[in-house]
Amino acid sequence: MKDDDPGKIAFPFPEPPAEGAVTEVADGILWARLPLPMALDHVNVYALDDGDAWTVVDTGMASRRSRAIWNRLIDGPLSDRPIGRVIVTHHHPDHVGLAGWMMAEFRAKLLTTRTSWLFARMLQLDAQDRPVPEAVAFWKAAGMDPAILQSRMDERPFNYADCTAPLPLGFQKLSEGTVLTAGGRDWTVRLGSGHAPDHATLWSTDGTLVIGGDQLLPGISPNLGVYATEPEGDPVADWIETCDRLAAFATPGQLVLPGHKLPYTGLPTRLRQLSENHHGALTRLTRHLESPATAAQCFQPLFGREIRPGEYGLALVEAMAHCLHLWHKGEVTREVTENGIWLWTTKQN
Known about the structure:
alpha/beta, seven-stranded mixed β-sheet, five-stranded mixed β-sheet, 10 helices
């Protein structure tokens, strides 16, 4: 792609804001970052100037460090007015984690999709000391490495409640086509799926800005995972459908404010990439499954690199998602062994 190609992906802000500081990315819109305890070590949050208050988009995980950073922001660049509303793009803990704290501490109103709110409330109640039988059966079906499976059996699993503040009752529902005013602009809500159900993205009606959350990331594709909660789901189909549908609203000049990485322009190109990445992975996977394999044996064709221990869980659920997508399309068969392991094989023509 030529340097002067209007469809090229570009990054107008090459450096993120320092911890506890903000960058103004558009008139009345401030960008800040919060840390995450994982390989993807940050999440972007935004504050939109409503004149008499701020609307915050996403919040980071609930931790002492994140709350301290928010208090620095509130005492510093946001100090001239209160937080009046919190918009949560989706239910994952790095986005909703401190929403309940802001509701309780500042009496902020919560705006999110009904699915996001229900998932967050449900997951906060689902705390476990050891993995439940359904999760263990799902890991076995995926072909999880026996040593990893055994270690998980003896450990307290990830609990959503450990990194999210309790959500008080009450929220305002965002739906497809909802129009809201924030930061001196009107925004249309468009919903996506695949990474998270009913993920809200906000598109300014003047055609200049898009708040993309994790649906519209630059440089990386968000995780598309299948879990024991919906063990035969097809998030890959949901993802591809969303990319194709949102492409109708994308223009090269829109500034996209993503949930991670840097703000960028060139959204039509990026949406095409986000779809093509998975089409390419599915083609490689189909060839790989000419010999029967478990999902755990599909990392190389899908990711093309060694999966480190800290990435294993996310890689496993994404591999399952891609195998299931081919199965739903009728392109592979699934055999369940007597040990409950799912073996996938490409259908022979």
